[in-house]
Amino acid sequence: MQPMTDRVAGILLHPTSLPGPWGAGDFGPSAEVFLDWAARAGFGLWQVLPLHPSAAGNSPYSCLSAFALDPSLIALERLVTDGLLDEGDLPSTGDNTDACDFAAVRALKAPLLEEAWRRHRENPQTSLVAEIQAFDESPSRRLWLEDWSLFAALKGHHGGAPWWSWKASLRDRRDEELEAARTALAEDIGRHRFLQFLAFKHWRALRQAARDRGIEILGDVPIYVAHDSAEVWSQPHLFELDAVGRPLAVAGVPPDYFAEDGQLWGNPLFRWSVMAEDGYNWWVERLRANLELADWVRLDHFRAFADYWRIPGGAQSARDGEWVDGPGKALFDAFAAELGTPLPLIAEDLGDLSEAARGLRREVELPCMRVLHFAFEDAQSEHATFRLPPETLLYTGTHDNDTTVGWFDGLDDAVKEKVLAFVGAESASRIHRHLIRLAMTSVARWAVVPMQDVLGLGSAARMNTPGVAEGNWRWRLQSLPSLEDADWLRRLVEVSGRLAQPE
């Protein structure tokens, strides 16, 4: 399914931000109600953040796995439909909190997911058995499902402790110790495999619901994975680690617009020279897996494919780093050889880019990203609507920006006057709508709006503040926007030539 127009309107909303009774949004009924609203508004694209299980801090960009889906996104209501739970098993009352409570969600869902596993194990349904077998035997699972299930079972067995703190024989993956663990933890391993089946099943159903409404999915690939992840534990030779699993070097960025001390992310860096030896197979399979989840994929921190900031392990500041060459075009040649061309990829090329990064994006012919909040910083801004190349994904703001209302409130008076003059507004009373209109009427092929800007929310609704460790990723809808909002958007989407319909 492809939109009948080359111009697309998109909405940015992570599933955890959806309303619902379980403490955070998921792949359940509220997501389909949202899709109904989005279709009424004329949107042809739904952008989500990474859907993988998050590590400490709940950031979707620091993942316990680059392949597994987050089990907390499993829809309890769908488990009833699947015959794995009864309606009476669900909590009698739920709380549609105004901020995600991830710990509470995991605590609430864990026993219910355990019960679904128990019922399946004791009385397997024929239809589910066939589906699970097909899921397990799919070539796309071979690289990661066994390692993830064993890793997750061991992590649970160790009370959540990171893998490098396990006894050396497990930390170093000695064959005899792994076999013993597979035997001792067979029940937990089976449960984790089962939960992955459910998460993928529920996401596929939701993605089909989007397709039925003429909406494509834009997914997101974080360039790095967490140190405490299944991939780093199971394939340590692919990462810059010492003999006991400590990072020799970590990821981050130097001081920039977002953080004056830079950002010390702490993710272990790839050994790109080792990855090159087998044609970047790990990355090829990672991209293949993500293209099964989404119609388009955003490559986070695109600059690092050209050159990346390498910070010595143990450094206290992101200032203490150096630029090192990335894999460059060789990686994209591997993608093309294995996955074909053209690939539906978007380059996240925001921030301070080197000429090498700019050149790489042009050479591999990927669309770029631009943000209207940056369009008024100086007269030469490449984010200005009159300087955009057509193959652009244009945002009012992203998940890393303040909301449009919060951004405008923080500008000095001279810049505020410049913004109002540019959008042709007498006042800032609906500045969010003015910027949405500016995005939609631009030449950019994709115009994407965060849900917070649809609602005209202030800084309290910000999703993430880069460089700040606490309080991020928690914003959540209490209810969907009004039909008046949807109808206003649809008129704008239609007159700007972005109204998509299924073929």
Q: Summary?
A:
The chain has 503 residues and is an alpha/beta fold.
Description:
- It is a single chain.
- 39% of the residues lie in helices and 11% in strands.
- It is α/β, with parallel strands linked by helices and 503 residues long.
- It has a domain of 130 residues.
- α1 links the parallel β1 and β2.
- The longest helix has 27 residues.
- The radius of gyration is 23 Å and the shape is globular.
- The N and C termini lie close together (7 Å).
What distinguishing features does this structure have?
503 residues, single chain, globular, eight-stranded parallel sheet, alpha/beta, 19 helices
Topology:
Elements: E1 8-12, H1 29-40, E2 45-47, H2 76-81, H3 102-122, H4 126-137, H5 145-157, H6 168-171, H7 175-184, H8 186-212, E3 216-221, H9 230-234, E4 249-253, E5 263-268, H10 272-276, H11 281-293, E6 296-299, H12 303-306, E7 307-312, E8 322-325, H13 329-339, E9 345-347, H14 355-364, E10 368-371, E11 392-395, H15 404-409, H16 413-423, H17 431-440, E12 446-450, H18 451-455, H19 483-495
Parallel strand pairs: 1-2, 1-12, 2-3, 3-6, 6-9, 10-11, 11-12
Antiparallel strand pairs: 4-5, 4-7, 7-8
Q: Helix segment count?
A: 19
Low-confidence stretches: none
Rg from Cα:
23 Å
Query: How far do the termini sit from each other?
Result: 7 Å
Query: How do the strands line up in the largest sheet?
Result: 9-6-3-2-1-12-11-10
Structural class designation: alpha/beta
